Amino acid sequence: MMTWLRIGCAAVVICVVSAVMLPLQILCLRFDWKLRRYLPRYWHRIVCYWLGVRIHVIGKLETSRPLMLASNHSSWLDILVLSAVADVSFIAKSEVKDWPIFGLFAQWQKSVFIEREQKRKTGDQVNEIAERMADGEIMVLFPEGTTSDGNRLLEVKSSLFGAAAAALPKTPDAVVHVQPVAVAYTRIHGIAMGRYYRPIAAWPGDIELVPHLKDIVACGAIDVDVCFGEAVDYRAGTNRKEVSATVARRIRAMLASRLLGREIA
Asked: Name one GO molecular function term (predicted).
């Protein structure tokens, strides 16, 4: 009974807040007001609070610009969590646009949807990412290209860092900062999740979205650690595969450290 009461309260609050903030965000997008960059952070913080997602930040967001964040990806929750921590936009695969609920939210946050099968469109989208980073926006890349089970980092695709290279000519110092980020779901109701319970938060993709969302809301107490690592400078002549490998190594170490509760070299 209490669970359903809490779910009902959360749904009402989120709907009321959305009814107030989303029209304003749509207006900001229509006229490209800079407020569109900051408004989503407040909405996501409120949503995370009412979903019972407690966020712990380790390290600091890089202050230099242009900035790309490269994060591991295990759940749609990652988007809410990262958006609650910083004013970001996402680089997403085109299929996300058609997701129920979150597809619309992604559009309202002005995510860039990559059409991987259409190379001409991909070039335009990479240019858009580059221009927005050069303008000071923080873009989030999930270089695995899909979601994992939350226990490990999948293979990182170096080709997805092409947007960083494309942004170089548009930056005054000819450098793009790529900061590795690890998002680790660590506890449920204050108790360590472990590999067995981590699927409560993780969403590998073969689970329907709406039932998974209902399970998250019903749970009501998930702790997540967001770890910011040392940024890598991407310059002209930088080897993209080396950057990819360095970023992957740092994400993997941070993720393992938070999941195991000890430092990993």
From this structure: 1-acylglycerol-3-phosphate O-acyltransferase activity
| pLDDT tens profile 110-156 | 999 887 665 556 677 878 888 899 889 999 999 998 899 999 999 99
> Could you give the CA distance from residue 247 to residue 255 in angstroms, rounded to a whole number?
12
pLDDT tens track for 35-68: 999 999 999 999 999 999 999 999 999 999 999 9
In DSSP terms, 140 is beta-bridged to: 69, 90
Query: Which pair of structure tokens corresponds to residue 197?
Result: 């319970």
- CA-CA distance, 198 to 147, in Å (whole number)? 13
pTM for the complete prediction? 0.92
Whether the predicted pLDDT of 28 surpasses 80: yes
User: Is-cis flag, bond preceding 66, omega within 30?
Assistant: yes
Token pair recorded at residue 242? 């080396």
Determine the Cα–Cα distance for residues 234 and 36; give it in Å rounded to an integer: 27
How close are the terminal C-alpha atoms of the chain, in Å?
Answer: 46
**Residue among 227, 125, 215 nearest 184 (CA):** 227
**Tokens read off for 120:** 């001409």
